[in-house]
Every structure is written in C-alpha cells, then in structure tokens.
Design goal:
There is one protein chain. The protein is mainly α. It has one domain. 50% of the residues lie in helices and 8% in strands. A two-stranded antiparallel sheet has the order 1-4. Strands 2-3 form a two-stranded antiparallel sheet. The two termini are 28 Å apart.
Amino acid sequence: MAKGYVLKWRGDEAKKVAHGAGVRALYICAADLQGKSANQAPIDTGDLKSNCSISPLKHEGTNFYYTVGYDLPYAKLQHERLDFNHPKGGKAKYLEDPFNENKARYDRFVKKAVKQALKNEH
C-alpha cells in the first residue's frame, strides 16, 4: 500500500497567528505615529507635546485598531488653526500630517508582519 499524507486546514490557528501579528504591528505603527506627532506638536509649555497617547486596543466587528491622539481642551483648536503662529516650534496638523505621510508605510508594515507570522507557522 502507498504511503498516505494527511492534509489539514488549520484556519482557526492561522486566524490567531494573523491576529496576534497584526495587533503587534498596529501597536508599533501607533507608537511611531505618537512620536512623530509629538515632535510636530506646537510648543508653549510642553503640555501638548507630552499629551499624545495611544488608546487600548479597540475593535468593531472584525476590525481592530488603536487610536492615537490628544485630550487637552485646546488640542483640536491648535491642530486645525493654520493661522496660529508657533514661535517656540511645532505646527498645525501635527497629527494629521504624520499620519498621511506614513499611512502607506504603516499598511505595508502590518501586511508584512502578518505574512511573515503565517509563513513562520507552517
């Protein structure tokens, strides 16, 4: 009799591996954005620069994400007002600009991390 081979679908395991790798990669991207944004935040007392935070992991349906942002009362105003002068440094759009400049890189990073994790689990 010929030697037989068993093929198994390990979909649940693959989902766990992909999820773990994706969540870790998302956090790395969130931390990178946090640093880039804080470096561009307007400076007066330094409160805004040190206020950038990363939320705990959130999920809606099958989507998982972190939120990077500021919660000081004046953060949104400082972010949106292009006419404000920042003589001590920083600028408006201090969260939006670094996100837009890096979102394609973040997307590639997460995809690569998930792909690599699945490849390592064969």
